Amino acid sequence: MQIVEDMYNLVVIGAGITGVWSAFMKKDDVLLVEKEKNIGKNSLSSLWSIMPPLCGEFQDLCLASEKDYDDVCFNLGVFCKKTHILKLDDFTGKGKLIGKNEVRTFEPQLDVDKAEMFENGMFVEGSEFFTRMEDVLNVETGTEVLRINYDGNSIKSLQTNKGEISAKYFIFSTGFLTKKMFHEDISLFKGHLIRTKKVGLNGILISRNRIAVEGRDLYLNGDSVNTEDPSVIYDELRETVSVISKFLRIDTSTLSVLTGFRTVSTNGKPLIKKVFSNAVLLTGYKFGFALAPYLAREGIKLLGA
Question: Does pTM top 0.85 for this prediction?
Answer without folding.
Answer: yes
